[in-house]
Amino acid sequence: MGKSLRFGLALLATAIVTGGCGSLGASNKTGAGKVPGQADAGQPQGGQDAGAGGAPAASGKEPRKESAWVVLPLLSSNPKLGTVYGVGGAWIHHFDEKSNASKFSVSAQRTTTDSTLLALSGKTSFGEDRHRLNLSLKGGHVLNDYEDYLGTGIPLKNVEDAVRVNGSFI
Question: What whole-number distance in Å separates Cα of residue 154 and Cα of residue 145?
């Protein structure tokens, strides 16, 4: 497998981890897998405890305030990179009432092979959900040092620096 393909797979794994934060939300009977602030069909906009027009019900109970932040530890194992550990975080925001939730995320990872992987991404929805902007910046410094590469008996040392920028606007 080529060194560019190996690094691309490592970056893809990072993108999957950082891109997966958008589905986290309240974990209750009607809201499992929702983005914070997303209303259920047929439910007033104020949540389960909402009264008429989405205002808090007069039950005296304050509605639960959900955090727009998600922070996760990252841990994985890879034959090329060794053990990968790091942290990932995301911030979820609504630009307007009619748009879907937007997510901005970051992750930083270090490996037992002294490699470093970084990723920044944004997936936005704005203009009453008429516009979508997706941007990502990924990069890293990958070190591979093999005494016996793929059982061939050949020692191999590889150092790769890469940066990748992706984007789309709809």
Answer: 11
